[in-house]
What we know:
This protein is of the alpha+beta class. It contains 27 helices and 14 strands. The strands form five sheets. Strands 3, 4, 5, 6 and 7 form a five-stranded antiparallel beta sheet that branches. Strand 5 (255-265) and strand 6 (268-269) form a beta hairpin. The radius of gyration is 39 Å and the shape is elongated.
Amino acid sequence: LLFREASPPRPCGARAAPPHALNRPLARAARSRPLSGAGMETEDISGGVTVATQTSSLSVVRGREVKRQLEDLDDDDQDDAEVPPSFRRYVALLNRTGPRLVVLSLWISLFVIGVGVYLPLQRLLKVSVEPPYGSDSEAAKATYDKMFPPEPVTLAAMITANGEPGEMLINADATLDYQLFPLPHVSYDPVDDLTALAEVISLDLKDLMKKYLDRCDFDFYSFFDMCAGHTVCPETELQSFTHQLFFPERYGGSEGMILVHMKSCDGEAVYKECVFEKQPFCDPVAALSEDWAEYRERRTHDCIETGRSECNVLLQVVSTPYVFEDIILGVEYGMALSTVATMLAFVVLFAMLRNVRQLALVTANILCAITATIALMYPIAAFVMPVVVTAPPMLVAVALAMSIDYSLFLLSRFNQERALGRPHHRALGVALFTAGHTIAVSGATLALCFCTMLALPTSTITSMALGNAIAVCMSVVVTLTLTPTTLLAAPRFYTSSRKYGLSLDDTPFGSPGLAAQAALPSRAAPDAPSKGDVAAAGSSGLPIGAAVGVSDAAAADLAEGAAPQRDVWALLGLRVQRHARLITVLLALAAVPFALALKEFTYVEDLTPLMQTSHPATHAFIKLADTFGQDLTTPVKLLIMAPTQEDGTTLDITGNKAWSIATCHMLQSLAHNVTSALVAQGHNYTMEPRDFVGLMTFSGGCVAEGYNLGPIDIMPFLKLAAQFTMLGDVLTNQGHNATQVYAHCHEDLFSETGNAWMRTLREQLVGA
């Protein structure tokens, strides 16, 4: 009963309210304690509840505590009344054996499937950076993969002069001799100390490869060993050709490189991911990479220990397997951090739940959310889109965090309702209606945020975003289905908190009596008054303090209607709601700097974000790109396919002069159009025809039209040196109906100008 108006006090000895209104110990106390000879006054406190206080000295509880208790009871009755019937039916459904078995079977099946496809999913993951899903680059790459064999695995060793400034590994100041005879060449002085040390490194690295000659086919490229395997060695011509490649001119000969291309092993073509996939025929590739890395570490250690002259030439090694090892170690490190974070999170959970048995529910939620996400990611990786190797650690971390968070929400509210004396099914209904709503809204918001990341044109981010969105959804579903099902399957077991759940209560080895006693709410007051009891006591003239029978301490506080104390978060929430418009304006102003920064937003789409910052391979990879250009680490290639002839056959581009000239002129026009478009956009950048390297173009000119130095066409001599024959074998496919052209950018591809160059090149290709 709730009285909205003050009612006159009942005279002493008057009958109390009807029994249905006095159904708690407070009513029994009212009937058993008749009052005598005291004047009565009424006071309207929170919510219009009328209570009676005695003007003389009375035994009352502290006013604030009674008022807070009344408000709590009011909220409890309101929560119980506002739980929709659909939630009650859902709890009733899960309280039946059949539906519980269906839910448990579903999650057990997803768990088994997720565990079963985990290893197959690892073999589908991509360590390299793939083109954005659904983009033109993805279609071009798919066509390229059909036309050309996998690119060889590259091992690179960088040698750096570490002596006095200006010291060189070779005589880089030599000038090319463009006379007809002898052929162009550069000088090479092996007597110099640094040059001799660099040559020793080259020979040592080559010796490490000899034990794999019987299994693998590879090419070894070194300035100091260009004639290996040649019966007739045009040494000076080859050194002239490779001088600028292996020793960049801007470093004056202080930086050099040695390359190895691993093409096949055991008769199988090797590719970048075969080492990561642990293919048996790729074992020599991984072993050679380890040999080179150990040689570098051993040489560095000897230099530090002995201080010999070898330290004047530094060695850094980078290879595809070495880079992949760097990435995998980073992934494993991330998984280890997730494991440590999980342990800490369980400590916090135990401190809040104080029940070890409920931690088992959280563990089940985590395992089911992770395995269900993996089960769904497998068909996505196999049939829909490439998934990078960093996606599983991210989805595991998200599933861990969300499963723990959402389980804490639901179980905390469930325990609170049980502490108020509600039965299991009613407590679970209130928890699902209140905390479950929070879980659903939070999960939907977070999943939507991850889904918006699918719009970013980076395969690394999109695959991780999709995995994270699925992980969040699985965490929500498992918390709202598996947790209630398990709680209702063994309610006393999971709510027994004696000895923090470490007792044998409600087990085959425990006592049912102890289990039932432990299942009682520990924080509930067994004789806690309800709002109806208070109203009934007030209508009968019974003072609240006298009814509950405690000290005469704070009747004045109760009469004055003191407000209950609120914590800092509740006060903050109230302040934010009162000043919602001002808060909205402040948030909008805070977003302005971020919106302005997005105008200059650029993204890095190479292997660098996947690598560890402290790994030697990361430093070597970055130095390789900085020293020798991004053409080596992030090449930009155009795939040019021969047209179809009238008879339905494809044109053979080998030796077809008309096609070669037409394609060369197209590239020259493309360079001019890119330059004009970039200048119109405000970028001071000039692209030249010589920036294209392909079978039909040489130094900006057309191969089929010849290359003249003065009146002499030197193209026949270049072909005689077998340079173009070797280049044609690399750039043209076996069917001779497609070729690839490398495009060089003078700026950092990931800078503003580099991104503009890339976009403009794509746009101009459409009209070319």
